[in-house]
Amino acid sequence: MRTAMSRALAVAAFGCLVAFVVAISGCTKISPVSTSPNRAPETTLTVRGNPIAGGARQVLLQWIGSDEDGSVDHYLVRLDTLEWREVTCTESVFLFPGRTKRPSLIDEEETHSFAVKAVDDRGEEDPTPAVVWFTPRNDLPETEIVDAPASVTGPMVFIEWIGTDPDGVIAAYDYRLFARWDDEWVQVVPDPDVAESITVGPEVTTVMFGPIAGLHKFEVWATDNEGGVDPTPAECTFTCNPELAGAVLSVSTSFIGTHRFRGPVWPANYDIPVDIFREHLTFNWTADASAYGGEVIGYRHAFDDTSSWPMWSLEDRTFEITPEPGQHSLYVHVLDNANVMTRARFFIDVSEVGLCQYILLVDDYDHWEHNPAWGTDADRDAFYDSLLYRCERPVIEWNPEEHMAGGTPQPPDVPTLAAASTVIWYADSALAVLGEVFDDPLCHRYSPLAGYVRTGGNLLLCGSKLLATITGEPYPMVFTAEDTTRAAVFVRDYLRISRADNSGEAADPSAPWSYGYCMHGAVPTPAGEALGFEPVYVDTGDCDVEPGKWFLYCDPPLPGYYHCGLNVEKLVSFQGTSLEIYATDSFLNPYYEGETSVVLYLSGDNHGNVCYVGFPLYYLKTFQVKAFFDELLPLLGEAPVATGIEE
């Protein structure tokens, strides 16, 4: 409902309409003589609104008239329900107070109408005046804290925020700080007897407090150029511990990631050793005390032996070592000009890389076996045993459900991997634990599979939608040189894959020809043929006597799905560093026909070799998979012995 004040302003603004007269473009007062019926003129109207300073909204109205059999003489205009007024201008400006309402409350806001109609040289008016409705609404600003202290931090606190306004600009910020005293929030900045908040200009988006101690709450809110105030201030809560004072120390490592420390006590998880392979490690560190106006005056470090420390030095910022097997600790200290020290620790447990004791078969199938028709865990055990039977090295099987921690099946640990010459890991289920290899709850950020390959271990990965399991991301996927996450780096640098899609992601159940589970088999590419590989196909069996391992060939669940295959990944080598050795032989979905589904990376150096198969091997014909293994295993350093398995 319009207030009396706003109506008065509107009337005043309408009164200004004539005062803001602009010369009419093309308007004349010619009165030609005509015996034909006169045609009424037509009118077109546009409105433009822009926020301006002073707590008001500027609305620019522009109109134009046309007359087919004469000319426009003047216009009649009306604001809301006021009287029609005669004008000769073609635009005017109205000023209205901005209403600070949310868009969701638009029905409750003040609205205005403006109508205009042209009058021709014979005095006939446009029977359909042009009308526009507009709301002088001011959308309120939003405030967000982008850099806040940790839940427990040191005595010096740095906070940064940003403000946004959808229809204007930020004019000011207000902030205040509370302390928790006797179970109540008490304002401490500014003094509540002086002001409710500290007001700063829009260019100020940071503040620093300290030294302070105890539980605190910070609030900040923006005000826009029309006087609208963010009704939900941004806030953060933190506890200041004077013992956590000191510079922020950042330590970058090879293979273990970048870690940040502050204060004399490192987080408790750094007292738990991270298992790693024996490989060359580099550590680089730097510290920053500028957030609280401090200055770094020196660093020092020690490896294992802390009985004596070197002198503080600004040059002491790097350390390299290839540690011997066993547990080791690297300690890094930094000192600021207030004589406050930040300490960091890296606690590692190094496993010797033997890579010669056995072939490790990781049975990462759905151990709940919710649908035995797809093949049980025992069926897969027998299948892989037949492929690896009588290999020169023994085969050790790792069942994740037999290695539980906190009620969760566990992937093989570093000591187990370190003794394996080749790891064959199959994961034919979405419940695979492969993804946990890349999920580090302690934030140590060491990738065991990457370390295994770096130190010479050979790896074969195969199964259903493995890249989704590894990365936790949906298909399609792209991996670039800029990726830094552990999972993406593993796919790019160790599996040597740059792009991937999966046929099971975009199936249309109503269109069998687009069915995503389309793989029929895979045939070797020219590179695969050169290495001696042969085609592999889905095991259909004899449907009249005994169905094969992929029963959908004999018992299609829906009409038109006869001869459905499996889901298959479409792969692209990263910068051509891996061999694309198999291409999909599919039908029903031409998008995957002839596309790469198996890649092989032969390192040629001290790194291990890696083969990635983008489909589950179990459902293929056993004798064909056996032939595939007979060619692949020697490339991975293994020497299989023929088992005489028939089709």
Helix content: 10-25%
Structural class: mainly beta
How would you state the average pLDDT, rounded?
Answer: 84
Q: Quick one: biggest sheet?
A: 9 strands, mixed
The strand line-up of the biggest sheet is: 28-27-31-32-42-41-40-35-36
- The coarse overall form would be flat
What is the terminal separation in angstroms?
85 Å
The total of beta strands comes to 42
The fraction of residues assigned to DSSP E strands is 35-45%
Radius of gyration, in Å, reads 37 Å
Please, how many helices?
A: 8
Low-confidence stretches: 1-33, 51-55, 100-108, 643-647
Give your account of this protein's structure.
With 647 residues, the chain is mainly β. Strands 28-27-31-32-42-41-40-35-36 form a nine-stranded mixed sheet. Strands 11, 13, 14, 15, 17 and 18 form a six-stranded mixed sheet that branches. Helix 2 (377-388) crosses helix 8 (622-635). The longest helix has 16 residues, at 4-19. The termini are far apart. Mean pLDDT is 84; it is low at 1-33, 51-55, 100-108 and 643-647.
Sequence-ordered SSE layout with sheet pairings:
Layout: H1 4-19, E1 42-52, E2 56-66, E3 72-79, E4 85-87, E5 91-97, E6 99-100, E7 112-120, E8 130-134, E9 137-138, E10 142-147, E11 152-153, E12 157-164, E13 170-181, E14 184-189, E15 198-200, E16 206-209, E17 214-224, E18 234-240, E19 248-253, E20 257-262, E21 274-277, E22 281-288, E23 296-303, E24 318-321, E25 326-336, E26 341-351, E27 358-363, H2 377-388, E28 395-398, E29 404-405, E30 408-409, H3 414-418, E31 420-427, H4 448-454, E32 458-463, H5 466-471, E33 477-478, H6 486-493, E34 497-502, E35 519-524, H7 526-530, E36 536-537, E37 541-542, E38 546-547, E39 569-573, E40 579-586, E41 596-601, E42 610-613, H8 622-635
Parallel strand pairs: 6-9, 11-18, 21-26, 27-28, 27-31, 31-32, 32-42
Antiparallel strand pairs: 1-2, 2-5, 3-4, 3-7, 7-8, 10-12, 12-16, 13-14, 13-15, 13-17, 17-18, 19-20, 19-22, 22-24, 23-25, 25-26, 29-30, 33-34, 34-39, 35-36, 35-40, 37-38, 40-41, 41-42
Helix pairs in contact: 2-8
